[in-house]
Design goal:
Length: 527
Amino acid sequence: MELLTSVIADTNFSAVDWGIVTIYLVLSVGIGVFANRYVGNLSDYIVAGRGMRTALGVATLTGTEMGLVTVMYSAQKGFTGGFAAFHIGLISGLLALFIGVTGFIVTRLRREEVLTIPEYYGRRYGKGVQIFGGIMLAFGGIFNMGMFLKAGSMFIVGITGMQNESALTVVMVVLLGLVLFYTVMGGMISVILTDYVQFVVLSFGLFLATGLAIYQLGWGHIFDVVIAEKGEVAFNPVAEGSSFGFDYVLWMAFLGLVNCALWPTAVARALAADSEATVKKQFMFSSITFAIRNIVPYFWGICAFVFVMGIPALKTAFIGGEDGATTLDSLYAMPVFLGQILPVGIIGLLTAAMIAAFMSTHDSYLLCWSSVLTNDVAKPLMGEKLTDKGAVLLTRIFVIAIGLLILFISFVYPLKADLWDFMAVTGGIYFIGAFALLAAGLYWKPASRFGAICALCAGSLNVLGLPAVQGMLLGVIGFDEARIEAFHSTFSSERVGLATVALAVMCMVIGSLLVPDKHPYHGKEDS
């Protein structure tokens, strides 16, 4: 904590900036209270009555996906990987455009008029698969969300210069409390309203901060430092010695696809749209923002690297000195950089925008996982005993429970990789199996219940790509740290992910052919 305190002490954050942030937080709470007036049933609470049109859909989709955690993990990738990290954002934008043009998966799901992805599992493969798929989705999603709270709090501590030893804990608790309040109160209506406000504020803040960063550092100087310190690997993700590599780029391509077509918070916007045409337009127009949401924070991370390399104390803190001194988590680099280059007032506006981004992501994710547990686990088990009013209440209870769980994960889980890589693996626990189930279910009539269960089980094996999980399992059988590190280098998260995708697809196909359903499903896509 002493090292962090010395690094963040020079921030420009002032009382004026705290005032700007406070005003925004008060407005956010007011939105939650206002939105509660319009929640009449479960459909209103989860998909806002399916009345969202294109412009609002683009704004709210961007608002959710451009969360503070996105800014933090992207900036970290820019800090560690340089301009080569841009390939992730470019791939994401191109695949969002592909989804918008073709409507792959999302338009057929909208045609089914389901509230959640596991609800489709229930129609296509039966109630048992719906319940199992809902549990898998919630488990992977909540685990994936476990670092959101900590990352967001690290940004606020780093940019504001909080020097109390308990600052990180206090910020996590306060932010979580605010998000829980207006998510519980307003559901998807609250989410859409706050996402729209966040979209406007954050768009302004992103471009303003980027311009100031270039002005402070100099365009040519940025490239000169990156070339001198990192060389070719800072520009070519498949160059020899790169921290990425061909396997990683291929893994990112798959993630770019599922991020649009399968990730529940993005799909929720498709399910809330007023028509299939609107769904396509949402993703077509959002393809640009899908790329920008990563590329701009990558650039901030690169600028933070250049800034750090120019100040000996910061270089020692983040990169390390000759004496092997303990370094700070690279997640702090970007907020420390912004805290020292942005002027008073501007830094407050940007921080308010980032808190807005934090909230818009958390409310969407909390609502998504809680609605899955209600609609796809509790409802199939309880049947008619669970009334619509009771379902809304239960969803709100799940929101609070999940919030407390992610607070616990933030405290106890040892993050041993870049935040983005952690999220890719934990998300894969759900979306690898989901890809097999949705692609096969929507486009391949022989897909069966047995194949679906096999694919879900196969997808869950992606958890083995986490360095912490590998270390725990290998430690049990007697591996030392050096052998564990060598094992992870060979069986990296991207290689485990790609192998798990292939396994899940094989399980779906082989399982369906070996044990076909007696009565094949004919959904609305065939009508």
